[in-house]
């Protein structure tokens, strides 16, 4: 038991230490805005000084102006108060101008940093994490961290100055009554500490439930077509209700704690104010206090008690900021796809010829079962080759290794005798164009899908002409400015693949990868693409994953894979003649398409 107790203490120390590190990183976010912060603090100091003077003026207005019937002094004091309030409001406008800039820039910078980091993450992260979950987590975390810049941090600094001014004012009027006001601090501290701990526990649980819900929701929407076909709407609605109940439970707990904190603050404030009225009235009756003095004292007590609550509540407010900051910085600290560019070769597309060599390459996802086993082959500049094999044979793995989405367990891949891992990732991928069986189109125009961010219309029209989709585009009401919809929802599967093919052509890379890229083509379109590959892409290295016989019959070389190993390499006629496995595989993919 004693060991368990010590372990709990050690765990608490570790948690506090971790929180301190997180707080340092949050504070570091404000470093670029030091000048703005200094200007804000100066405004706060002046505003706090004015706030300290105003109750004293109110005291004199009552005691020396009203009660003593000194009308001229009353006018002077009222005008002085009026101009001080105007000055305070002007300073407030200046302060909010600087503060708003920071409160807008912090979430912007956090979102930009998160987006840039997302673009650098390994594809394995996106394969294991739902897009809805990523969006929800980042949105929640950025929003919570940014709350500091909204009001909390600067509000607390303002309150600290007000407390100092208020305490000075209280002691100037009556030090005994001041002690009554200060008695609220330890009681409020204890209440806030207990509530903040409980709130943080509930908020961390809420984050877990919210993440689980976002993952479920994103997964459900991704498969909405299948759900409709299978008639699972009612089941999914039931799951939705269960997910929402979990969220409601935690949200209710958090809101109840917020209300308890608010009530405790109001009760304590009323107790102190009531005591001050009673004691003040007693002193006034005994001629030891004035009415104006009591009013000023109560005003100063508000300056102290309200800010003290705000300062003590910072721990309560941070109870949901710290968990979000932990998750956000954990995301930012994730290893990117390529951790550093240092030492990587910079290459230009025109420097590369397009010779590719796989040398003794093996790959395994789990370190036990090998997906690829010691494969070696070479593709020469300008060759058109096909990779063929049954499902699960390793075709996609070869493509992903070549694209550097995966890293080999052993062996190397070379391009023009350069180890591809030694080349800058950005430069390397600029050498390759990829068209998948299910390419993704962005919800923008046809033009921007083919040549995103470019106005090279000559290249655009050339790519469209080569793929022979100019008639289709010209038939559309908006032509090249037609919006294709989310992932090409407004066009057919074949048109979608053709636009993706035009995009690959327009990229003008030395190496082109076509992964079942013509699966949705009609016969005429497919034959035109085959003709393009043979005659229009003479200087490019083309790698195709396909089982279509009319393609296999015309490529320079076929790499036949079975169970992660290369069975044979050769032309179609050669493989068909000497390999029963190849003949059987081709027979399983019969197509009613005439030979070229």
Net shape? elongated
> Main beta sheet: strand number and arrangement?
6 strands, mixed
**Helical segment count:** 21
Q: Structural class, please?
A: alpha/beta
Radius of gyration over C-alpha positions, nearest whole angstrom? 36 Å
Low-confidence stretches: 1-15, 591-596
Question: Mean pLDDT across all residues, rounded?
Answer: 76
Distance between the termini: 81 Å
Task: Describe the strand arrangement of the main beta sheet, using strand numbers.
Answer: 6-7-8-3-9-10
Percent helix: 55-70%
Beta-sheet strand percentage? 5-15%
Strand tally:
10
Give a verbal description of the structure.
Helix 3 runs antiparallel to helix 5 and helix 7 (184-222) crosses helix 10. The chain is elongated, with a radius of gyration of 36 Å. Mean pLDDT is 76; it is low at 1-15 and 591-596. The strands form two sheets. It has a six-stranded mixed beta sheet, with helices on both faces. A hairpin with a 5-residue loop joins strand 1 (356-364) and strand 2 (370-379). The protein has 596 residues and is of the alpha/beta class. Helix content is 65%, strand content 10%. It has 21 helices and ten strands.
